[in-house]
Amino acid sequence: MTGPTELPPLPDTRLAALLSEAEALQPATVALRREIHRRPEQGLHLPHTQAAVRRALEGLPLEIVEGKSTSALTAVLRGAQDGPAVLLRGDMDALPLQEDTGLEFASEVDGTMHACGHDGHTAMLASAARLLAARRHELTGSVVFMFQPGEEGYHGARHMIHEGVLDAAGSRAEKAFGIHLLSHVESGLITTRPGPLMASNDTFTVQVTGKGGHGSSPHNAIDPVPAAAAMVGALQTMVTRRVSVFDPAVVSVTHIQAGTTTNIIPETAEVAGTIRTLSESTRALVKAELPKVCEAVGEAHGCRVLVDIEPGYPVTVNDPDQALRVLDLAQRVLGRAELMADPIMGAEDFSYVLQRVPGAFAFLGACPPDVDPAEAPTNHSNRVRHDEGAFPAGVAMYAAFALDALAG
């Protein structure tokens, strides 16, 4: 009798039921998401959101610690056997936008909206805690659930790291994982890549000072406006001539301000914008070169120049092994996954965690089924909608990452 020399791998019984278990938790996941969505909060202090998460975790065998300086919440689940720690993160804060989605659970807070999916991240992580608590006997080690405020520009992850989230289980977490919803990607699809995934982001402001005068006699003034205008072009030339195309940077001037009326040459002009890079070496190069370019242009126009660069988030860099592991888990648990071809130039403060712990950050598609992904309002739009049908995939992936890492 002849037959194949290689048999297909047996299914992983530890992971096979995760998606159905996550689907069973969907009513609780959706309820928490909608509660948070109705009452969005910005920044580092989110008392309503923190209280909602605490209620969602009631009755679970978790060690819960609230942040000292923020509304952070850290919960530790200890497995049946001692072992290493794994960290799972969900961010909780909203954006300064007036919601225009028409959803029945739309924001009830003027000028504040969950437009980046953080309400979904938080709800998925809370349900993952419930799912993993039910499988506590399968864990050789601990799971740290990082419910983080202040991702939208407030460096919330850094605050939590300072207060000990990475060591919350008693030893440094050995692996870390985070998920981010994307409204313009097919619902339920996990996608990520090894290495650089998202850019650093720094902001710059250039103050250009000349000498004011009458618009009819510019020769009696020192006009800062032409100097500011020349800087815009010079900065683009700097990028194309000083930065390798294989390690890119994006410098965007997004704000120019000068003058009060048409017949006055102003004394000052201001140029501001953003710097995005995919490596710390290119980030350092651009931050060093940008002031030189602006100061030289200013000097050529007879103006004084003051440059300020405000540091933002670092490059988000996935550990190669962990990123490929996430893709493999998604294939096994969800039946599909997609390797991202290129990084994106948005920024993310989970980068602070990945600087210290080998891990991965992944995107979960959440395009509503009635919307063409190519036409879907994207994250940070006041019309963005995220498909709640994608949530079980996120819950299952959080749980799969922990179970796979802490298998006995």
TrEMBL record:
Keywords assigned by UniProt? Hydrolase, Manganese, Metal-binding
Outline the extent of the Peptidase M20 dimerisation domain: 203-298
> Can you tell which superkingdom this protein's organism belongs to?
Bacteria
For this entry, the protein name equals: Hippurate hydrolase
InterPro entries, alphabetically? Amidohydrolase (IPR017439), Bact_exopeptidase_dim_dom (IPR036264), Peptidase_M20 (IPR002933), Peptidase_M20_dimer (IPR011650)
Task: Give the cofactors, semicolon-separated.
Answer: Mn(2+)
Report the cofactor remark.
Answer: The Mn(2+) ion enhances activity.
Q: Which Pfam families match?
A: M20_dimer, Peptidase_M20
- What NCBIfam families does UniProt report for this protein, alphabetically? amidohydrolases
Q: Which GO terms describe its molecular function?
A: metal ion binding; N-acetyldiaminopimelate deacetylase activity
BP GO terms, sorted? diaminopimelate biosynthetic process
Residues engaged in binding Mn(2+): C116, H118, E152, H180, H380
- According to its UniProt entry, this protein's organism is Amycolatopsis thermoflava
